[in-house]
Each structure stands twice: as structure tokens, then as C-alpha cells.
Amino acid sequence: MTTFPDPFNGLVITRYSNFYAVEDKDGTIRQCVSRKKLSPLCGDFVTWEVSGDGGVITATMPRKNVLTRPDRRGQAKETATNIDQLIIVNAIPDVGDEQAHYAFNTALTDRYIVATELLGATPLILLNKCDLASQETIKRMELALKIYQDIGYTTLLTSTKAEIGIEALNNQLCDKISIFVGESGAGKSSLINAIMPTLAIRTNVVSAHSGLGKHTTTTTVLYHLPQGGHLIDSPGVREFGLWKVEAAQLAEGFREFKPYLGECRFRNCSHRHNAGCAIEAAAAAGKISAARMESYYRIYNDLNSSD
Question: What are the contacts of 95-100 at 24+ separation with CB within 8 A?
Fold first, then answer.
């Protein structure tokens, strides 16, 4: 059961064009429009009032954060709000030869982590299709994941076919608003179906009660999880990553850097081979992993080269 903060009496489940599916405190989903100057998003708590056969959204609650992704023109498009957790999905390749040379995608994972930290959410790092891997590959992947575990992030090995890690994933989803991101073909859809096998049925229910019809299959939709919490399913979320992050903000997205921020000799330190840099000194002393430091350099260079 959703807990509604007073005085808000609705939760936006999805949006299509100028219409919104709003769930009220009784669990009924109603088709609403919004007053001008309001742009509700999936995940917004709102106040609404009855109007004709539907309703009108009159106010939105201040947001914890806003998730954006590029639209077809490369412009920022607000997708969902009030996200607690981003589940970053990587996957072990199906083919044995590819497995032998497979390296955990730290470049993509670290970009998602930075974006998640700046969003004020929590990342969950997941390696899927582990049933396909040899013991040697698993050991290599566990070493790669240990870098993240050592700085306080939760990691999971999962397989939908072998039902590995699904219960642990369900526990991580409890009482949070979560969304899946990550590599294309990593098995996000299979994971969603494994944790919520009635997704197709619930999609039909939202469609029927909201009047939005088939459009709920091509837009961002919030679903309630049986164990408590919510899952946002978005067809474009795999495009989400670092969006308009200033180079100066980047260090804030590295959790292990935070104890040393403000300790550098120079206020405008870029933490890239600078004299008196407290972060690089910590890395040299083994307090920050070399892999994460290299990842910071790489992302910093990418951000600057795109200016």
C-alpha cells in the first residue's frame, strides 16, 4: 500500500501526451489532465480533484530528484522522479571465447555510479547471467566487484534461468523506488519478469483503468512490488548516464573521494596530477583504488573533450 504524504492524494503512475494515470488513496487509477504550469512526472505525488469522468492535477509535491535521458534530438527529457535506487546491470557473455576475454565494464558502471550519486540515489551493481560463466570467470568478476564492495556499494551475481540471486534482489527492492539501467542485452527485461511475473497483467490493468491504452507499453510506468516498494519500467532508460555533468562536479560522484574534498592545496584542483592534491595522495597511499582513480581520469577527459 502506498503511503501518501499529506495533503497529497494521488501518485502519478504514467503519462502519455497530456494525460496522466493517477492512483488515488484507494488504489483506483484515474485519467487526469494537469493545470497549466505543472509538468507532473511518473513518481510524482500530487493533489487532484474530480472533473467529469476523470480529474485535474492541481499541485505536485517537491521532488527528491529528477531522472533525465536524451530525447531523439539529444535534448534532456525528464523521465521520472523520486528515485531511490538505480540497478546497474552488466552481463556475462553467452559465448565461451568471449567469456575468456570478458572484463567487467567498469567504464559504464562508474559513469552510472557518478550519475546516481549526483542524483542523490543509491546504486546497486549487478552482474547477470552468471550461470553461463566458468568458475575462473566468476572468480575474476568477484575480484572486479570487490573494488565496489570495499567502498560500500552492494553487488549481486544473478541468473534468471538458474534463479541465482533473485531473492537477494527482491530484498534490495523492498520499500524503495527502483529503476534498471545498464548494458543493452544484459537481461534487464528477464530480471524484471523474474521479480514481477505479473507485469504484463498489471500493464493491462493500468491501461484499462487509465484510458491510456497501448501507450503504457511505450512510456515510463511505475508498478507496485508485492514485497513493498515500486519499480519504474522505462523503455529509454538504457540511454541514461552522465547528463550535463560539469567537470567540477565529477569528484562528488566518487564516494571514496569525499573525505579528501577540500583538503587539496589549491581550491580549483582538478585531481589530475596536481601538486598538493589530497585525493591523488590518498590514491598513492592505497586508500583509493588505482582502477577507480583511472576511471576518474577517463571520465574527466571525456567530459572536457565534449565541451
Answer: 96/134, 99/132, 99/133, 99/134, 99/137, 100/137
| Domain 66-197+224-239 part of CATH 3.40.50.300 | yes
Q: If you count DSSP H runs as helices and E runs as strands, how many of each does the chain have, helices first?
A: 9, 13
| Inter-residue contact 82 to 119 (CB < 8 Å) | no
Q: pTM score > 0.85 for this model?
A: yes
Class of domain 10-60: mainly beta
pLDDT tens, per residue, the chain with 307 residues:
688 999 999 999 999 888 999 999 999 999 999 998 999 999 999 999 999 989 999 999 999 999 987 667 767 788 899 999 999 999 998 766 677 788 898 988 999 999 999 999 999 999 999 998 889 889 999 999 999 999 999 999 999 999 999 999 999 999 999 999 887 788 888 898 899 887 765 666 677 767 676 655 568 889 999 889 999 988 666 656 676 787 778 999 999 999 999 999 999 899 999 999 999 999 999 999 999 999 999 999 988 775 5
Q: Which CATH superfamily is domain 247-305 in?
A: Probable gtpase engc; domain 3 (1.10.40.50)
